[in-house]
């Protein structure tokens, strides 16, 4: 009986209301598609090309220490940047040299320590045109120790 009642009752829906209903429905479908695509893209970003903090090696290898020294002792900013974590590579430092001309950085590998969170520290000395000592903060990214912070020793 309920179904018969619906058939007998005619709804007066204007042409304008039908068009409005179609437009609202189309917008809802478009929004749903955009949200679905956005979520799919966010969850499937190719992280293999992004630097990844990796499980920290338990030591600073000779190769990694020489890499850091070579990069920082270079006169080329692009080479110096290779020793820094990606977030620092285009930061404020990029307007100035990491080391002044005539200075040479040496990493003291025997001072290398690593904490329980996987961050490491190592001492470094700069000699030549200036003589200073630093504690260098390191984090392992893509299997290589890179610099995230420095603190001059007093």
Commentary on this structure:
This protein is an alpha+beta fold. It folds into two domains: 42 residues; 91 residues, Nuclear Transport Factor 2, Chain: A, CATH 3.10.450. The protein contains four helices and four strands. It has a four-stranded antiparallel sheet with strand order 1-2-3-4, covered by helices on one side. β1 and β2 form a beta hairpin. The protein is elongated, with a radius of gyration of 30 Å. The N terminus is likely disordered.
Core attributes:
single chain, 154 residues, alpha+beta, four-stranded antiparallel sheet, 4 helices, 34% helix, 25% strand
Q: Quickly give the structural class.
A: alpha+beta
Summed up, the domain count is: 2
Report the CATH architecture of the largest domain.
Roll
The arrangement of helices and strands along the chain is HHHHEEEE
Strand-residue proportion: 15-25%
Number of helices: 4
Instruction: Give the overall shape, derived from the CA principal axes.
Output: elongated
How many DSSP-defined strands?
4
Q: Uncertain spans, ≥5 residues at pLDDT below 50?
A: 1-9, 40-50
Helix content: 25-40%
**How is the largest sheet built, in terms of strand order?**
1-2-3-4
| Biggest sheet statistics | 4 strands, antiparallel
């Amino acid at each position: 009986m309920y179904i018969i009642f619906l058939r007998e009752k005619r709804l007066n829906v204007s042409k304008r209301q039908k068009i409005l209903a179609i437009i609202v429905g189309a917008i809802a479908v478009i929004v749903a598609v955009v949200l679905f695509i956005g979520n799919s893209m966010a969850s499937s970003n190719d992280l293999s090309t992004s630097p990844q903090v990796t499980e920290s090696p338990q030591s600073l290898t000779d190769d990694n220490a020489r890499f850091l020294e070579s990069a920082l002792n270079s006169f080329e900013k692009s080479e110096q940047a290779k020793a820094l974590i990606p977030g620092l590579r285009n930061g404020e430092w990029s307007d100035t040299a990491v080391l002044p001309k005539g200075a040479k950085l040496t990493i003291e590998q025997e001072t290398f320590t690593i904490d329980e969170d996987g961050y490491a520290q190592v001492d470094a000395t700069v000699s030549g045109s200036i003589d200073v000592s630093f504690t260098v903060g390191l984090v392992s990214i893509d299997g290589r120790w890179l610099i995230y912070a420095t603190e001059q020793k007093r």
